[in-house]
Amino acid sequence: METLLEPLQYAFFQKGLLVASLSGALLGFIGVYIVLRGMSYIGHGLSHSIFGGFAAAQLFAAQFYILGAGLWGIASALAINTVAKKSRVGADAAIGVITTASFALGVALFAKFGTSGPSFESALFGSILGITTEQIIGLLAVIVLTVGFVFLRYRALLFATFDPDVADVSGVKVNRIEAMLMVILSLAILATLTVVGVTLVAAMLVIPAVIARMLTDSFGTMLALSTAIGTFSGFTGMYISYYAGVPSGTMIVLVGATLFLIVLAVTGGRGLKRSVGLDAH
Amino acid sequence: MSLHLWLIKLATRSNVARMTGTGVGPKLIEITGVEAGYDKAVVLHDVNFHVHEDQFTGIVGPSGAGKTTLLRLLLGTVKPYAGTVTNAPDLRIAYVPQLETVNWNFPLTVSECVLMSRPTKRKLPWSTKPERDEVTGVLERLGIAQLADRHIRDLSGGQQQRMFLARALLRQPQLLLLDEPTSGVDVSTRHDILHLLADLHEDGVAIVLTTHDLNGIAAHLPHIVCINHRVIAEGTPKEVITPPVLEQTFGARMEVLEHLGMRVVVDEQPEPRGSVSN
User: Fold this and answer.
1) Domains of chain B, with CATH numbers?
2) Which of A88, A155, A168 to mutate to probe the B interface, most B CBs <10 Å?
3) What DSSP designation does B125 have?
């Protein structure tokens, strides 16, 4: 017990634990929409793309790198949204090119000019260190925005996710809702980047949502479960990473993956059947 | 207005004036000289078509003839290249999609599915008691209230069709559009759906549906439109289900028989070749 309480005396760990839990919750929450809309790959690409923006922005104005990365992220999110809509065929290839090029640019800039913000490794895999109060406030702001958007537009968002064509003729502004979802996704990735890491964010968007789907047939319940699973993974993963001395993102994802295996073993074929072809349209 | 009151109002109205279904009431949608299609490829030419308040129409035609395009013109999701589509002011349209196009693995219970279409000014995601009562009411009317908490995939084809009808009815539509409502369901379900639609029409909802089923559906409707990239013919089954119209529409010769006052279409048998006569 004392060993468990021991890290809690450090302020950096308290902050880390808080941000990890909130990040897990946010990614688990929004991940439900991402998975059901078949946007997992977009989430993956977007996080890599934001890395490029992050590296470029801190070159010019170190103190505003979050702002720069945010603008870059929103711009690529809207660009991806347009590309994905315009051409179903080849959209994934276009996303692959744009986002990996952006990622490569980020890596090159990091290698050449170094960093004044988070380290290269922590940007990629997440770190418990160096979490600032500003970051916590930013994360809370994104959570308020996301939860507010989903609450106010709950039915319209569900309609547009399940059945965009019919939603469109039923007075739902599908295009506007999709664009807003992309903006929120890029902000969520940005706000959770330092704890979970660029390369592991996509996993935390997908894993809690898939586990939740295996456990329920109701959309509302899936949303609540996925948020809870994300929170648990963030909290537990951060704790373990402290003892294991590895980047926090890796443990957060591994806790999620372990939960997935446990739920798979318990629900068996039924759970698997529920989660197969979730985004089939 | 509550759904219940709306249904009562419709029922009273239909008692006052019995609907004919052939389209004589005020116009809901007017399509004039329309050319339409997708990606610059023209699927429909020179279409003139009106939907009236008391209409119950089946759009028939071969695959790729533009049935769904015409339905989408009415819906407003396809914009015409030429001509005009004019809706009555504040027209409420509801749409029932083809079951094949639905993602059945989506985590959704029947009541969640029905409720999503209900317009709301509420700022909270969860439903209110009156809303839940409304959903129960419409599910009861369609005979699937006991399935409210089931997952959408656990329903039979007919029940799934009823669920989407329930979702559509919650919008209190004046016009109901259905894309192939009976494809992939068995004969008794087809009858059920047809009766259900007839009841709704009786209650004053205008209905337009597409179908490829001439005998099972089209022949039972009060009004049919035959299309093959343009409107070939329009009228009652007696007027429209004739060999010349069918040949123009489907590009194949068909025989039309009369059975208990109904038109029955049979494929014309090709001349037997190489048959041995004794």
Assistant:
1) 3-92+172-267 (3.40.50.300), 104-171 (no CATH)
2) A155
3) S
The closest CB to that of A162, out of B76, B94, B108, belongs to B108
Domain coordinates in residue numbering, chain A: 2-275
Tokens at A236, concatenated: 């537990």
Q: Do B103 and A279 touch (CB under 8 A)?
A: yes
Fold of A2-275: ABC transporter involved in vitamin B12 uptake, BtuC (1.10.3470)
Q: How distant, in Å, are the alpha carbons of A78, B68, B95, B179, B181 from that of B98?
A: 31, 10, 10, 5, 6
Nearest residue to B265 via CA among B216, B204, B222:
B216
The ipTM estimated for the assembled molecules is: 0.81
Tens digits of per-residue pLDDT, A139-171? 999 999 999 999 988 988 999 999 888 888 888
pLDDT digits (tens, 9 = 90+) for B93-113: 999 988 888 888 899 999 999
Q: Do A170 and B171 touch (CB under 8 A)?
A: yes
Residue A4 Cα distances to A238, A241, B89, angstroms: 12, 13, 67
β-pairing verdict for B206-211 and B56-60: parallel
- Other Cβ atoms within 10 Å of A21 Cβ, number: 21
User: Which residues from B are below 8 Å from A when comparing CB atoms?
Assistant: 75-77, 93-95, 97, 101-103, 105-109, 112-113, 115-120, 123-126, 151, 171
In DSSP terms, B30 is beta-bridged to: B50, B86
Query: Which pair of structure tokens corresponds to residue A82?
Result: 């347009």
Can you tell me the distance from the alpha carbon of B232 to that of B36, in angstroms, rounded to the nearest whole number? 16
pLDDT at B11 > cutoff 50: no
What tokens does B87 get? 């809706």
> Which of B105, B108, B120 is the closest to A277 by Cβ?
B105
Give the three-class secondary structure for B265.
strand
Specify whether the CB–CB gap between B29 and B195 falls below 8 A. no
